[in-house]
Structures are given as structure tokens and as C-alpha cells.
Amino acid sequence: MSKQFDILVIGAGPGGYIAAIRAAQLGFSVACCEFNGYDDPAGEPRLGGTCLNAGCIPLKALVASSELFEKASHHLKDHGITFGGVNIDVAKMQQRKEAIVTKMTAGVQFLFRKNKVTLLKGRGSFAGKTDAGYRIIISGKEGDEELLAQKVIIATGSKARQIPNIEVDNVTICDNEGALKFTEAPKKLGVIGAGVIGLEVGSVWRRLGAKVTVLEVMTSFLGAADESVSREASKLFLKQGLHIKLGVKIGQAKLTESGVSIAYTDDQGSEHTLECDKLIVSVGRTPNTEKLNLQAIGLQTDERGFIPVNDHCATAAPGVYAIGDVVRGPMLAHKAEDEGVMVAELIAGQKPHLDYNCMPWVIYTTPEIAWVGKTEQQLRSEGHDYKTGQFPFAANGRALGLGDAEGFIKMLADAQTDEILGVHIIGANASDLIAEAALAMEFRASSEDVARTCHPHPSLSEVMREAALAIEKRSLNM
Ligand code: FAD
Ligand code: NAI
């Protein structure tokens, strides 16, 4: 007789593992299957998905190390701190990153045990449906096992998108997995795609001494961000020495004795070759659906491989849900997590709701970029009547004390009701500061609500209040 569970979650990334834990908290019998060892030395599946193993967490560890290196090399002298030469031991930096990843993935195993989630080691795929539930095959090291689940949550995530003529070997030509594992800083690094990964990973290796050239197909830079933030970012990244070429058409990449050469055509139609030691291809991600055998339960993906779902992440198959990178919407860990919680609570008969407009975005560059809600260009194209308030970090005492006074916070509010419509930050600690704006928007706060809230002094958060005050042209410190 097959094992039976109320809920089976396929994939243990941030979407899947959080869905499994929330469902177990709500009293369901829950199993979660995962097959990917992400180079685990024992060949065991590692939990946490892309986020913990090859994405958010390892990348932010490298961001932190490289920022400290840059500070020590160039900025501590402004504080009167001097010492001998600064060196970077990339192997040690990577060991530190690995230790963080191992701790976090083991933490998810602990959470599964604590919440009585059964971990099934293997790849999940559908075999069909009976009156007793969905038939799922788990293919592991010991062979195949079939089980039955009343409900299924698909959380299989995504993988790096490939482009023609460029074969990723994850040694010289790398996607996100190889790009986080360099054993030394390349002298010359090429990056295809000036998106989130290109900017974050490119900045890591630039801080550590690489000459970085980013080749981007679009003619505009960071189109998803507010236009004033993109302009400011472009200016600051150029000053830092990140070379971003827009409007290029990528040709062939060839391995050479010293690395790789990439042929490309610039926005004027001239042909060029970029020679570098390493190349990172970061041109977006595609959903992992091809081995799920979705047709066994009558499901099909859309033309881009995503599983179609409604606002509540329900697929067309009753009792089957899909969350995270494998469905529409931003590919963000917190989006996957929140969809996981929503689906578990829906299955329990609750009435959860996600407002995707209140989901923050962060880009971990120097300075950080973060936003929530609409951009100014979106409001303009919608014909929305809005007000703008902006305040620079350069006028904030805490930012000056920290030596991190670049950038600003910009707030957009409805011209009549004063409801906050969007908040855009480029500046130190933007990733933390944006949480206040997300909370304000969840509560449908007005800019006056933020302006009247007492903020600690001296703190970077005062810039948020000043941006809110600037909406009525009554900033106090400028
Ligand atoms: P995933 O994390 O991809 O997890 C899916 C899991 O399912 C994987 O472990 C996979 O092995 C498993 N799986 C697939 N198929 C099967 C199957 N058939 N059976 C069993 N298991 C299966 N987002 C942020 O919000 N902030 C960041 O700072 C950030 N940084 C990133 C940096 C990089 C370099 C990358 C690549 C991504 C980053 N992201 C970030 C995006 C974030 O990692 C993803 O949005 C998030 O991991 C998606 O979660 P998920 O659970 O949907 O999928
Ligand atoms: P992306 O979608 O952010 O950027 C890809 C870039 O590549 C785009 O600017 C695109 O125009 C460009 N591009 C596409 N095809 C190209 C081509 N042929 N030649 C040149 N340029 C080309 O995707 P990215 O950076 O790969 O990241 C994938 C996902 O991971 C993102 O969607 C993001 O949500 C997530 N992520 C999130 C992070 C965060 O939240 N801080 C950090 C890193 C990744």
C-alpha cells in the first residue's frame, strides 16, 4: 500500500519548504520531496533551493565580504584608520560563504523535523489521479516509490536561462552556480545581462579587483526600477568602474587559451570582441517543469514553461497548486514564501490574500536599490494624478557619519487622497529601509501618516520621513 499524505510539496526551495512548514503547523500530514544535492559532499539532497544554495544567501555573503574589502581598501582612511596592505583570500571568503549555506540548509532540515514534515529524497513527478488522491512517483537513489496525496503544491523553482551560441560550463562560462564559486577574482570579467544577477555578481568581482564589462541587449538601463533611481544608479556604477554597454547584440562566445572571447555588435551596429578570463551569463531564468509529467494530471505549461495559476496559485487541476518561480510574477524568494503560506492557509479553509503591489524588490549593489509599489513612469503612463517627495541621504547626519551618503528616497502619493503609491530607494541599507514603506502600503497609509510617525534620530530611517514631508514641500532638514 502506498504512503499517503494530506499534502505533498514538490521542491524544498523557499516556496516549498515554507509551504510545508505552514501546512504542518495547520495540522496536515505533509511530505516534501527534493532531489538536488547542489554539490553536497555526501550526495544528499540539500534543502532551501536556489535561494539558500545558489542564489540569495551565498551571493549576499560574497556581497558582504567584497564590500568590506572595498571599504578597507579605499574608505577606512577617511575615518583616520590606516594599516598595511589589504589582501583578499578568495578561498577563505568562499569557505565562509559555504559555511553559511551549510548552516542554513541544515536549519531547514531541523525545521522539517521540528514541524514533523516528512522529507522524501528524490525527484517528484505525477503518475495520475485516483479517487484516493494524486499518484506521485518519487525517484531517489534507491529507485522509485509511489505515494498518494490529497493535495499537491508544486514548488520546483527555476534554472538559469541559456542563450544560443554560448555553452555554460560553469568553469569559464558560468551561470549563477559557477559565478558564485570563483576561486580567485578574475582580472577581466564579462557579464551578459545587466539585470539583478549581472549587477550584484558583477559588483562583487569588481570590488575584488576585476575589470567588469556588462553587455545588455536593452537600450535602457534597469527598466523595472523608477527612472530617477535608474539614472542615479547608472551614474554611480559608472563612477565605480562598472562598464555597462547597452543595446548590444551578442554573437558567439569562444573559449580561448586565457579565457573566453565574446563577439558582440554595439548599439551603432559596429562589431567588437570582448576578451575576458571569465564570462557570466545572467539573462533571466526559466521554470523547472519539464520532468514533472504534468500531462498525467491534465496540466500544461504556458509557452514560456510556467504553470498557469489563478490569483490564489490554484492550477486547473483541483487540489493542485503551484507557487514561486514556477508561476507568473517576480522571481523573488519572499514572493515564493508568501505564496507558500497563502496556499497552505487556503487549503486549511482560511481566506489569505497577497497584494503583489506591496512586495518589495531589492538589488544588493553599492549602494543598495529597493522599491515597492508603482514607479513614476508607471503612474504617468496610467494617467494617475500623483505627488512626489524626495530626500537625499547626503542631508542625513547618520548617513554622513557612516560614510554612506549617496542616493535618496523618493515617495509617490496620490494627489487627492495622499495614499502612498510607491517608494523608491537608492542608498545604504535600502533593503531594510524598504520594509517600512511596504508596511505603510499594506496598511494603505498616506504620506502624512509616515511624516507624522516619530523616527529614531540619528538614523537612515529619517530620510523616509523627510521624503514623506517633501511631498508637501515641508522637509525640515533641507
Ligand atoms: P527554488 O528556490 O528554485 O527551489 C526549487 C527547488 O525544487 C529546488 O531545490 C529544486 O532542486 C527542486 N525541484 C525541482 N524539480 C523538482 C522535482 N521534480 N522534485 C523534487 N524537487 C524538485 N530572490 C530574492 O528575493 N532576493 C535575493 O537576494 C535573491 N538573490 C538571488 C541570487 C541569485 C544568484 C539567484 C539565481 C536568485 C536569487 N533570488 C533572490 C531569486 C530566488 O532565489 C528565487 O526567487 C527563489 O529561490 C524561488 O524559490 P522557489 O521555492 O520557487 O524555487
Ligand atoms: P533579470 O531578468 O534580472 O535580468 C536579465 C537581463 O538580461 C535583462 O536586463 C535582459 O534585458 C538581459 N538580457 C536578456 N537576454 C539578453 C541577451 N541575449 N543579451 C544581452 N542581455 C540580455 O535576470 P537575472 O539577472 O538572470 O536574474 C534572474 C532572476 O533572479 C531575476 O528575475 C530576479 O528576480 C532573481 N534575482 C533576484 C535578486 C534580488 O532579489 N536581489 C538577486 C538576483 C536574482
Structure in words:
The protein is an alpha/beta fold. It folds into three domains: 226 residues, FAD/NAD(P)-binding domain (3-Layer(bba) Sandwich), CATH 3.50.50; 111 residues, FAD/NAD(P)-binding domain, CATH 3.50.50; 114 residues, FAD/NAD-linked reductase, C-terminal dimerisation domain (Enolase-like, domain 1, 2-Layer Sandwich). It is 31% helix and 26% strand. The protein is built from 13 helices and 22 strands. α6 links the parallel β9 and β10. The chain starts with a strand and ends in a 7-residue tail after the last helix. The model has no long low-confidence stretch (mean pLDDT 97). The structure holds flavin-adenine dinucleotide and 1,4-dihydronicotinamide adenine dinucleotide. The site of 1,4-dihydronicotinamide adenine dinucleotide has 24 residues, from α6 and β18.
Average pLDDT number: 97
| Helix content range | 25-40%
CATH class of the largest domain: Alpha Beta
Total beta strands? 22
Distance between the terminal alpha carbons, to the nearest Å? Answer: 73 Å
Largest sheet: 7 strands, mixed
Q: Output the radius of gyration.
A: 24 Å
Q: Give the low-pLDDT segments.
A: none
Shape: globular
Number of domains: 3
The CATH architecture of the largest domain can be given as: 3-Layer(bba) Sandwich
Report the CATH superfamily of the largest domain: FAD/NAD(P)-binding domain
Work out the strand percent.
25-35%
Bound molecules: flavin-adenine dinucleotide, 1,4-dihydronicotinamide adenine dinucleotide
CATH overall fold name of the largest domain: FAD/NAD(P)-binding domain
